[in-house]
Amino acid sequence: MLRIAVPNKGTLSTPAAQMLRDAGYRQRSDPKDLLCRDAANGVEFFYLRPRDIATYVASGDLDLGITGRDLLVDSGAAAHELLDLGFGGATFRWAAPADSLASAEELGGRRIATAYPGVVERYLAEHDLKAEVVPLDGAVENAVRLGVADLIADVVETGATLRQAGLVTVGEPILRSSAVLIGRADTAEEKRAQLMRRLQGVMVARSFVMLAYDVPAELLENATALTPGIESPTVSPLHREGWVAVQAMVRRDDVHKIMDELYDLGARAILVTDIANCRL
Ligand SMILES: Nc1ncnc2c1ncn2[C@@H]1O[C@H](COP(=O)(O)OP(=O)(O)OP(=O)(O)O)[C@@H](O)[C@H]1O
Ligand SMILES: O=P(O)(O)OC[C@H]1O[C@H](OP(=O)(O)OP(=O)(O)O)[C@H](O)[C@@H]1O
Ligand SMILES: [Mg+2]
User: How far is the centre of ligand 1, averaged over its atoms, from the C-alpha of 154 (Å)?
Assistant: First the structure.
């Protein structure tokens, strides 16, 4: 059985379980369950703190895991990123009271509060800076006003928590994180192949839609230039003389603009449908 770690709580937990469900795997029905066996697919899911997942994967006790890139880096564990899963996006950044720090080059000698000491220590070492790291468990934004630190390094998604705490970001993001599938360098290819193909299928299905339309045959070249599809668009005859039907996958983000352009060109009966899943 393939043994896979999934976040049991926190920001990544629900979207990770949903992605696995969309990929055809059984998931726990009770959020307190710590194990779910999917016998039909030969997989066991272990629900763990996302912060601990890289440790279990690196040790070989679990084959694969879903966690955040920032948590993987912070752990220092010998696990590798196999696939960016396209959810749980956030930046990891320095933040300080306005006007207290002009750039990250001024970090030296300061007190830095963070729940990610591994990421911060690594940055300091790489940039040849010496600073005091104040490790905290959470609510790190409070550390500056409470006087235990001069600045923080923390996850920033919307920036609302920073603003409330009267902090502003300093410099460029330390790293850009998102949920990732992790494994070991020696995880057998055949063990990861099915899961990775299925997860990639879910990601493609989420970012593309299927577009179908009818168009006069003489406009086909112009129309398919707008909708080239992945391999090539499907073109079928229509009962109506001189018209053809076209089907092609298009990026979800572009679909409205493409529909406008197709309509202006002379295409009609333009229909968009969601793709539930796919293998390309
Ligand atoms: N708005 C966000 N807040 C916190 N973590 C986020 C956010 N958006 C994405 N993430 C990612 O989620 C992971 C952190 O998850 P974790 O469960 O450890 O903390 P959490 O979601 O803040 O939950 P909690 O603090 O309730 O334990 C990191 O990879 C982080 O980059
Ligand atoms: O940029 P934002 O959209 O405001 O999100 C980022 C904030 O959300 C998380 O805090 P969480 O609520 O998980 O509390 P914690 O610090 O105790 O983990 C994270 O640690 C930041 O504080
Ligand atoms: Mg948190």
Answer: 10
